[in-house]
Amino acid sequence: MASESNMVAVPSQNIPSGPPLTGGSPDKAEAIKDFLRAFLRHKSALIGSIIVLMFLLMAVIAPLITPYEYTERSQELLAPPSADHWFGTDEMGRDLFTRVVYGSRISLWVGFVAISGSIIIGSLLGLIAGFYGGWRDSLISRFFDILLAFPGILLAIAIVAMLGPGLNNALIAIAIINIPTFGRLMRSRVLSVKEEDYILAARAMGMKNSRILWKHILPNSWTPIMVQGTLGFATAVIEAAALGFLGLGAQPPEPEWGTMLSDARQYIQLAPWTMIFPGLAIMLTVLGFNLLGDGLRDLFDPRMKR
Amino acid sequence: MVKTEMLAYTIRRILMLIPVLIGMSIITFAIVHAIPGDPAKTIAGEKATPEQLQEIRESLGLDKPAYIQYFHYLGDLLRGDLGTSLITKVPISEEIGPFLAATAELTAASMLIAVFFGVNLGILSAWRQNSWWDYSAMLIALIGVSMPVFWLGLMEQWFFAQELGWFPSNGRIDARMEFEGITHFYVIDSLLRGDYAALSDVLMHLILPAAALGTIPMAIIARMTRSSMLEVMRSDYIRTARAKGLSEFWVIYKHTLKNACIPVLTVVGLQLGLLLGGAVLTETIFSWPGVGRYIYDAINSRNYPVIQSGILVLATIFVVINLIVDLLYAWIDPRIQYGKE
């Protein structure tokens, strides 16, 4: 096991790990170019990033591409898709296309903030556990075990039941339930990087722990976290929609996809489009992030392939 | 030697469960006791009278210091007391049984669907690698992984129940059918009675929710089977088997499947958490009277003891099954190093 993870650690040193920390050397620029070339050749990474960019663009320019306000009501209730209403209207006569487009803002926002939170807290805990070991490791690892003991969405339900329903509390819940994923990953990365020769050398030269952590261990542990972060984004989008669907996430009239699906339940026979489009939006977003994540994993480290 | 190692590993794994279970109880305890502001007010709602508030405070022990409340809660749990439902006033440990059976039946059915279709889809893909079959099977798997279970459930309900009318859209059995649960596993109950009309009705009710819940694990199992099959198919002894003139079908099914089953078993174990979590959503959509639906209804009626205990029971089942899978895995695969992570 240990030798395998050591092997995994090596190739990532030649890979750009986020923005260069100390100016761009020609080697780094070349590496980035190589990476981009490989990225464009990788089908799933390319398709995934196109889908993700499409939703991102949709979220940014939402007011420009939507003909109505997302709370604006028309006389036509549950109208089927038409030239006026591309995706039809809902039970209050609101334009579904507008609501689905605005929904991308909520989903991407929740995914981004929640996963960033999980990455920051999880990585910090994983770093401490892996680097210092001992009682800190035991304590933090047990904490991860406890969080992982709950099926994800159930823990999220528990947290929102405690804090009260709402988008922000759903966001906090999603951030918390994803902490152990990143924490464990960071911990195992730190454990394998820690034994590398250059770290031992840095230590022998009397480099301080904090400096070793920041200068060497963190940059070298970053790539798998980014890959997992992309895949985690997909999970977060589904979890946010699930909480919305259960009435625990975004509250009406927010155009959140899961909440829209929950409203659509009563009308599935009468107006199936109220259910089809928000669901399709969730699925495509999740698909995009999954494809991108899978692609990045293949590109960064072929040995991490499932 | 191996036996004692295995025994030590088993004991260690069980001991490691204790802090996890305690941590879980702290979290479910916090669901009620860490509600910001006055928990009694949150539970009783805005219009509650002072008497109602007092009643809730007393019944949940909210009037004592937190650590004392926790030890009471833990003591109750150890005695098998899961609290009392605020709505039905019945002890939860008494009323949760049939809900658990319903969830178990649904989960088992989805796992069956997931394993059967997942493994076969994976084999098909690996066998005809890079063919049209492979691409479509993997496309299905990819879409399956990205599919929100609640949307799939709604789509199925709309298309197969409402539009085509092939399956019933709600519940476990036709409401007009007289049916008394013995084990509360309706498939088993109807078999025990020899009531085949009931059996077919129960199965028809089971198909849609089980298919919805089983789709994501199916997709993951298919991908996993495919990659482990490809690895095994390239190995020497499969080439030997082919060279000996064994038929293609025989080679695939007998030799490779057996070797590919260990990684697949792990995925099956891992997917269980997804299934138990997804059950809350699926049961909500299909009005399936399981623990998930029980928790969902409790959320809407602010029935906090039921939310607490429902979540704790599902999580405990999840942890115990994970333990069993881990032990099985160690037992089947001798390469696992006991005592190391």
From TrEMBL, chain A:
<dbReference type="Pfam" id="PF12911">
    <property type="entry name" value="OppC_N"/>
</dbReference>
<dbReference type="GO" id="GO:0005886">
    <property type="term" value="C:plasma membrane"/>
</dbReference>
<feature type="compositionally biased region" description="Polar residues">
    <location>
        <begin position="1"/>
        <end position="16"/>
    </location>
</feature>
<protein>
    <submittedName>
        <fullName>Peptide/nickel transport system permease protein</fullName>
    </submittedName>
</protein>
<feature type="transmembrane region" description="Helical">
    <location>
        <begin position="270"/>
        <end position="296"/>
    </location>
</feature>
<keyword id="KW-0812">Transmembrane</keyword>
<dbReference type="Pfam" id="PF00528">
    <property type="entry name" value="BPD_transp_1"/>
</dbReference>
<dbReference type="GO" id="GO:0055085">
    <property type="term" value="P:transmembrane transport"/>
</dbReference>
<dbReference type="InterPro" id="IPR000515">
    <property type="entry name" value="MetI-like"/>
</dbReference>
<keyword id="KW-0813">Transport</keyword>
<keyword id="KW-1133">Transmembrane helix</keyword>
<feature type="region of interest" description="Disordered">
    <location>
        <begin position="1"/>
        <end position="23"/>
    </location>
</feature>
<keyword id="KW-0472">Membrane</keyword>
<dbReference type="InterPro" id="IPR050366">
    <property type="entry name" value="BP-dependent_transpt_permease"/>
</dbReference>
<dbReference type="InterPro" id="IPR035906">
    <property type="entry name" value="MetI-like_sf"/>
</dbReference>
<feature type="transmembrane region" description="Helical">
    <location>
        <begin position="45"/>
        <end position="65"/>
    </location>
</feature>
<feature type="domain" description="ABC transmembrane type-1">
    <location>
        <begin position="104"/>
        <end position="293"/>
    </location>
</feature>
<feature type="transmembrane region" description="Helical">
    <location>
        <begin position="143"/>
        <end position="164"/>
    </location>
</feature>
<keyword id="KW-1003">Cell membrane</keyword>
<comment type="similarity">
    <text>Belongs to the binding-protein-dependent transport system permease family. OppBC subfamily.</text>
</comment>
<feature type="transmembrane region" description="Helical">
    <location>
        <begin position="225"/>
        <end position="250"/>
    </location>
</feature>
<dbReference type="InterPro" id="IPR025966">
    <property type="entry name" value="OppC_N"/>
</dbReference>
From TrEMBL, chain B:
<keyword id="KW-1133">Transmembrane helix</keyword>
<keyword id="KW-0813">Transport</keyword>
<keyword id="KW-0472">Membrane</keyword>
<dbReference type="InterPro" id="IPR045621">
    <property type="entry name" value="BPD_transp_1_N"/>
</dbReference>
<dbReference type="GO" id="GO:0055085">
    <property type="term" value="P:transmembrane transport"/>
</dbReference>
<dbReference type="Pfam" id="PF00528">
    <property type="entry name" value="BPD_transp_1"/>
</dbReference>
<comment type="similarity">
    <text>Belongs to the binding-protein-dependent transport system permease family.</text>
</comment>
<keyword id="KW-1003">Cell membrane</keyword>
<feature type="domain" description="ABC transmembrane type-1">
    <location>
        <begin position="100"/>
        <end position="329"/>
    </location>
</feature>
<feature type="transmembrane region" description="Helical">
    <location>
        <begin position="14"/>
        <end position="35"/>
    </location>
</feature>
<keyword id="KW-0812">Transmembrane</keyword>
<feature type="transmembrane region" description="Helical">
    <location>
        <begin position="306"/>
        <end position="332"/>
    </location>
</feature>
<dbReference type="InterPro" id="IPR000515">
    <property type="entry name" value="MetI-like"/>
</dbReference>
<feature type="transmembrane region" description="Helical">
    <location>
        <begin position="262"/>
        <end position="286"/>
    </location>
</feature>
<feature type="transmembrane region" description="Helical">
    <location>
        <begin position="202"/>
        <end position="224"/>
    </location>
</feature>
<feature type="transmembrane region" description="Helical">
    <location>
        <begin position="108"/>
        <end position="127"/>
    </location>
</feature>
<protein>
    <submittedName>
        <fullName>Peptide/nickel transport system permease protein</fullName>
    </submittedName>
</protein>
<dbReference type="GO" id="GO:0005886">
    <property type="term" value="C:plasma membrane"/>
</dbReference>
<dbReference type="Pfam" id="PF19300">
    <property type="entry name" value="BPD_transp_1_N"/>
</dbReference>
<feature type="transmembrane region" description="Helical">
    <location>
        <begin position="139"/>
        <end position="160"/>
    </location>
</feature>
<dbReference type="InterPro" id="IPR035906">
    <property type="entry name" value="MetI-like_sf"/>
</dbReference>
